[in-house]
Design goal:
Helix content is 32%, strand content 14%. The chain is an alpha/beta fold. Residues 2-21 have low confidence and may be disordered.
């Protein structure tokens, strides 16, 4: 089972980013890993089993089409969110190591599992595959500082597996905003107002791709500009959703 992930960074003889870890579990270093996780660590991932039908906010009860309070009072401009995990341990630690430390081996099992989840889920909900995947845009300066855009990484991997084109030039961020961390949904919506612009033609069906959805404010703003540009069906795809 997954143990504390922090101690992995102190190991000098084994690096999770090196070829020496091929076949090893990134959670417990078992040699019985498949795509980066052993079966026990994979079973520890917090599945987003009960959630809002619209924004995928984790809920405390089951139901096929339950909506959270926010989506009932203020329906979002997107149609459905497909998010397989809750942003809790160990998924939160795995995404953080990938996003802030560039340790891609922690993201690979999540992305692979996400692709496995998407194909039957799309079929079960009676939806066709999107015509295009659009990664959540990042300002060029921030991308240079981090070294990559995690949303683009995820989208390109899913696009390759599911045979869906990925476009990174359709929507751009136009300005820098105050850090979203710590802000509520309304403050995030205000903060993000006018931050995205559409530069290319938008097909009828699109999916916005990101790593984590927190309050959903960014997805609401991004979906709004895509809807105004002509998108008829908009899905949100992300690895994880915060509990609230």
């Amino acid at each position: 089972m997954i143990k504390g992930l922090d101690w992995l960074s102190t190991l000098k003889s084994i690096s999770v980013n090196s070829g020496n870890t091929k076949g090893l579990c990134v959670g417990c270093l078992s040699t019985n890993a498949f795509r980066g996780l052993c079966k026990f660590c994979e079973a520890d991932l917090p599945v987003n089993r009960w959630h809002c039908h619209s924004c995928a906010l984790p809920l405390a009860h089951s139901g096929d089409r339950h909506l959270c309070g926010d989506c009932l009072t203020s329906p979002p401009p997107f149609d459905r969110s497909l998010i397989p995990w809750r942003y809790q341990y160990p998924v939160d630690s795995m995404i953080s190591r990938y996003k802030y430390s560039g340790q891609r081996k922690f993201a690979r099992p999540l992305i692979a599992g996400f692709a496995d989840y998407l194909a039957p889920t799309l079929q079960d909900c009676g939806r066709s595959k999107p015509d295009m995947l659009i990664p959540s845009p990042m300002l060029p300066g921030r991308r240079r500082k981090r070294g990559f855009n995690q949303a683009r990484d995820i989208a390109e991997s899913l696009g390759h597996t599911l045979n869906i084109p990925v476009r990174t030039d359709v929507v751009r961020r136009t300005r820098k905003v105050q850090a979203q961390r710590g802000l509520g949904r309304e403050a995030r919506l205000t903060n993000m107002h006018g931050v995205f612009e559409v530069y290319k033609a938008v097909p009828e069906r699109v999916a916005i791709v990101d790593d984590v959805v927190t309050t959903g404010a960014t997805m609401r703003i991004l979906a709004s500009v895509l809807r105004e540009a002509g998108a008829q069906e908009i899905q949100v795809w992300a690895l994880a959703r915060t509990p609230g």
